[in-house]
Amino acid sequence: MADGTVKTWKDLDRFVKEVYGSPGKDLYDRYVALIEGFKEKYGKAPEIIGRSPGRVNLIGEHIDYEGYSVLPMAIKQDTIVAISESGDDKVHVANLRSGFSEEDFDIDPAALVADTVNHSWVNYVMAAYIGACQYAGQRPTRGLNILVEGQVPHGSGLSSSAALVCSTALALTEVLGVSAPQAEVAQFTAECEKFVGTESGGMDQAISIMGELGMAKLVHFHPIRTEDVTLPDGAIFVIANSLAVSQKAVSAAKQYNLRVVECRLAAALLGLRLGVSKDKARELRTLREVEDLVREKWNGPKGSVMGAESEVVRKLLDKKVYTHGELEKELDMELEDMFAGNPSQLASIKAAHDRDVGGFNLRDRAMHVYSEAARVLEFKAACDSPTLTSEQQLEELARLMDDSHASCRDLYNCSCDELDELVRVCKKAGARGSRLTGAGWGGCTVSLVPQDKVEQFIAEVKREYYMAEVNRKGGLPKEEVKKDGKKVVLWEKDG
Ligand code: NG1
Ligand code: MG
User: Fold this and answer.
1) Alpha helix ranges (H) inside 107-147
2) Catalytic-residue membership of 204
3) Is the ipTM of this complex over 0.85?
4) Does the beta carbon of 255 lie inside 6 Å of ligand 1?
């Protein structure tokens, strides 16, 4: 455990109560299984166990990498990682669950390269290892044995990857003997996940490390910091899995990275049209930086800056799909050269070009980012409002969630048929608001459901979505895990 206080089974019992907010024999047994499994595999007990949860994003999708604040909360489903010294100079990695490869890698972090083509789950462990060693400024003197057990469903938008990276990193900082403040672990884990080839922002790592029981958080970036968000009375968030595995990293252009690239191109074009030099425009990295330019140019527009930005986008970017060639002409540089410094982004540019994914939809992407960033702040303001009744608060949150989904679907094109159908079913079943959560292209939805309608809602979604899916695809949702303390209900289907 990160605070090093669990020495006996009784301590473990207390730890489980503290961390999960409920006694839970199953939770206790899970740690016991990890420890026993570790002994069986490596011949001795682990020295350290790291733990970090998945998350559900309530609002603020695809804006963390643009520098804008997001509003997630941690969920009970988590990853636990047991570690001890090994007798050799390798890092051995195994998983308690079946179906995961067993691999080892060199203890010299400088020697490690991730194979992002034949992607293995161990890449995430490697990423955390590199990040922790860099942060500590040293590597372990001996090799390590590592055993992982994770409960966050994969490709579901609940950030199983951050749970794995963060739990491993937390345990490793202990192994390396550095005491790392939470925000710093969140920062370095966000950076090191790029090693795996996703140009992600820092939301998942921040909330996985800094989340608290019973609390949503407004997460800010540069530097990472959080504000508590107390949700209104009667706010129950229900997570439902569309059972479509998120395709965010699958296509040739890697959908997710392609969005990061489109935002950077939108920023560059907006910069140009706001009158900055071509050199400077090409250096712009995020839409957040454009916000500063807009403020300079209009000398602090009255009202919402974000609102003003959307006006600017509407005026300055055409409602069309920009081609590779057009952008090169405008920016006066080969896109391959402009993105040369970033291999993942460059790969997306090339794949988009080779396969002609239809060009770059800059106006819609920018409109999504600025409007979503504004919705996050409105969501927080509604939660904090001293004048709204909880009924009015819920109404406002629901409206913002619905708008967020529409924007993800229509402007950011990161939804899919299954998610849209599930959102429709959730609304029909009594959700006040419903939206995709996480990267999208599959994965989960999160719905705001009135407290007294939760049971009825679940029954109806099962009937209307899952039974239909079961008939279509075969297989049943396996578990139903209720999270009373933190107002989350999760369905999970293995495999
Ligand atoms: P998920 O849903 O876990 O793939 C991704 C990014 C986040 C954020 C969201 C979209 C990773 C590790 N995380 O989350 O940083 O950009 O998409 O809001 O890629
Ligand atoms: Mg070119």
Assistant:
1) 122-136
2) yes
3) yes
4) no
Contact between 172 and 81 (Cβ < 8 Å): no
CB 230 within 8 A of CB 222: no
Report whether residue 201 contacts ligand 1, using a CB cutoff of 6 Å.
yes
- Residue-level pLDDT, tens digit, the chain, 495 residues: 345 467 788 888 888 888 887 767 788 899 999 999 999 999 999 999 999 999 999 999 999 999 999 999 999 999 999 999 999 999 999 999 999 999 999 999 999 987 777 778 999 999 999 999 999 999 999 999 999 999 998 888 899 999 999 999 999 999 999 999 999 999 999 998 888 877 889 999 999 999 998 899 999 999 999 999 999 998 999 999 999 988 776 655 578 999 999 999 999 999 999 899 999 999 999 999 998 888 777 655 543 446 666 778 988 999 999 999 999 999 999 999 999 999 889 988 888 876 656 789 999 999 999 999 999 999 999 999 999 999 999 999 999 999 999 999 999 999 999 999 999 999 999 999 999 999 999 999 999 999 999 999 999 999 999 988 777 766 655 444 334 333 344 444 333
From 178, 229, 259, select the one nearest 69 (Cα to Cα): 229
Q: Is the CB of 193 under 6 A from ligand 1?
A: yes
Enter the tokens of residue 87: 């007798």
CA of 19 to the centre of ligand 2 (A): 52
d(CA 156, CA 367): 25
Contact 255, 466 (CB under 8 A): no
What's the pTM? 0.91
Gap from CA of 339 to ligand 2 centroid (Å): 10
Q: Which atom of ligand 1 is nearest to the CA of 65?
A: 16
